[in-house]
Structures are given as structure tokens and as C-alpha cells.
Amino acid sequence: DKETLKDGITIRKWKKGDYFYPFGMRGQRKLLSKYFKDEKLDLNAKENQWLLCSNQDVVWVIGRRSDERFKVTQKTKKIIKISLLT
């Protein structure tokens, strides 16, 4: 939902203390370090994981999971489509 994004978007690597609200988990906050452990990511995968962020908020763990706070709803009027080309 474009209206939920603040001051543009950035792409960056994850850092200690980052968290998000995984889509489908009904607003439960999760540290990315815990999410990566649960997903059984190895050190190389964690170190090379990119995030799409709005300010410091994680919008999308790129290629893996989006944040519940930025999902499209019935009230959504504008969206931004972002594609990852590999």
C-alpha cells in the first residue's frame, strides 16, 4: 500500500536489531535474526540478504517475505509494484 510508505524507499543489507511484522502473522513482531534462524538460513545467506525499507521500517525481506503493515487492503488506493530481476 503506497500510502503506508514514508519518505520514499531504500534497499540495504540487514543489521542487528532489525525487525518486521511477517505477512500472515497477524501483527506479531519478529527480529530478523530470529526469522533467519527459523528459516534455517546459513551465515552466507544472512550476510547477503537485502531489505526494502521505508525509513527504518522493513517493508520486504527481498525474495522471502513482506511486512504485514504494508499489505494491500480493501482501503488501498495506490500501490507500488517492485520486481526483483536476478
Please supply descriptive tags for the structure shown above.
86 residues, alpha+beta, four-stranded antiparallel beta sheet, two-stranded antiparallel sheet, 2 helices, globular
Can you describe this structure?
This protein is α+β, with helices and mostly antiparallel strands and 86 residues long. The chain has one domain (2-70). The protein is built from two helices and six strands. The chain has helices at 32-38, 43-47, and strands at residues 10-13, 19-20, 30-31, 50-54, 57-61, 65-66. The protein has a four-stranded antiparallel beta sheet, with no helix packed on it. The longest helix has 7 residues, at 32-38.
Give average pLDDT, whole number: 88
Oligomer: single chain
Structural class: alpha+beta
What form results from the Cα inertia axes? Answer: globular
